[in-house]
Amino acid sequence: MEGTYVGSIDQGTTGTRFMVFDHSGEVVGNAYEKHEQIYPEPGWVEHNPVEIWENTKAVVTAGLADADLDASQLAGIGITNQRETTIVWDAESGKPIHNALVWQDRRTTDRVEELEADGKIDGIRAKTGLEADAYFSATKTEWILDNAEPLKLQSSRAQNLRERARDGELLMGTIDSWLIYNLTGEHVTDVTNASRTMLFDIHEMAWDDDLVAEFDIPEEMLPEVRPSSDEEYYGHTDPEGFLGAEVPVAGALGDQQAALFGQTCFDAGDAKNTYGTGSFYLMNTGNEAVESDHGLLTTVGFQMSGEPVQYALEGSIFITGAAIEWLEDVDLIDNAAQTAELARSVDSTDGVYMVPAFTGLGAPHWDGRARGTIVGMTRGTRKAHIVRATLEAIAYQTRDIAEAMEADSGVETTSLRVDGGAVKNDFLCQLQADILQTDIARPEVDETTALGSAYAAGLAVGYWDTIDELRSNWQIDREFEAEMDAEEADRMYGRWDDAVERSLDWAREE
């Protein structure tokens, strides 16, 4: 496949990126576009799906131009996406019936508390590997079907949305499905994204009848579930469409599983942490779905064509990079790069702890009503202390997950592969090594989410023959070793639990 490349659409929480990779996994083309964050009410977060699709077309076109390539030179396209974010759209027109409900959206917290009161949490966890939470797609889809304005028929009679869904007129999907549908006309998702809906039995690898009934989501509207790397392809782009070429769309992975794949964590015990809007720590557990006793999620890691599913344990931290964005929003910093300089300007936080629970707390606490908290301030507290406390909070939250991961898996973490925008910050990487007392390995290509979906598509179309080829592509940019004394790390981490305690169960209706 000389002279050909693989493209990856990386549709994230704050924007959409298209990257083109060559056979050695090097980036040859890159384009990015932000989209609007919509906050209709406190705790509600939405995106405009049409804007996301328009931006996707724009970045694919721009990324190919950046690489000076024609679309016909793409051997295949992979997709990676913000997980759990949910869209319902009209099958005929392709138009969404409501804005996408974003994974951060908390509007269905009451519904989750109903499930808890009804004693249904354990049953959901047993089938899906997930904690029942507003984070996942099930309650979001239910909310849209209950609350979106019904589309008007030609007779001007409003028809019930569930009736329309049962008649095959409405489709539901996460962002991967939305993009695959617009690219190929096919209604498909991959196993990793299906496993994040709270509607999918990860042991049977099928939509679960009881869960579909619980949320009254017609099964007719659910996408077909396919392997993450699919030699039968999800479909092809329309040669008459915006690309002007028939390109196979053959791989998809939720963003965190894509990063696991891009970091070549193909074996049981391999682990990575991605620092994006939130942070997501995943450990490959092989063909065994390891049940967590410490607040972690059991999830599908990936599936190759014709091969068994590989599972993962996951610690989901909702807010890390978004905490740095908040520092910028309130004018404590001008840009993210400034955080390292400010944090270094003080020796410590002077006892200040920041808990960035802006949309509740994920693993291992799972408190949808927790809210952001700063404690320990005095009259001498300066912005440098708050900035440093914010970076420390990222490291503490990761240690929460690492300790839970070790307790569940019995595997001690000796090295953690990291990626995402925040790992460009050397101060944060060193701090993370110190707080974890573990080596941190940062790869040369830190956009491993996009790389992972490119690998999935490339394997499916034969651009790469084996995963060993991919392993040889992985190169370390820099390794960070713990420099802090273990007792000091434990002392700093010891007050973190006290700070978290003060953030819990804050957002109560009057």
TrEMBL record:
Family: Belongs to the FGGY kinase family.
Chain sites annotated for binding glycerol: R83, E84, Y135, D255, Q256
Residue positions binding ATP: T13, T14, T277, G321, G421
BP-aspect Gene Ontology terms: glycerol catabolic process; glycerol-3-phosphate metabolic process
UniProt-listed Enzyme Commission number(s): 2.7.1.30
Cellular-component GO terms for this entry: cytosol
Residue stretches spanning the membrane: none
Alphabetized NCBIfam families for the sequence: glycerol_kin, PRK00047.1
Keywords: ATP-binding, Glycerol metabolism, Kinase, Nucleotide-binding, Transferase
Pathway involvement of the protein, from the record: Polyol metabolism; glycerol degradation via glycerol kinase pathway; sn-glycerol 3-phosphate from glycerol: step 1/1
Domain Carbohydrate kinase FGGY C-terminal: 272-460
Molecular function via GO: ATP binding; glycerol kinase activity
Binding site for ADP: T13, R17, T277, G321, G421, N425
Domain Carbohydrate kinase FGGY N-terminal as annotated: residue spans: 5-262
Full protein name: Glycerol kinase
Alphabetical list of InterPro entries matching this protein: ATPase_NBD, Carb_kinase_FGGY, Carb_kinase_FGGY_CS, FGGY_C, FGGY_N, Glycerol_kin
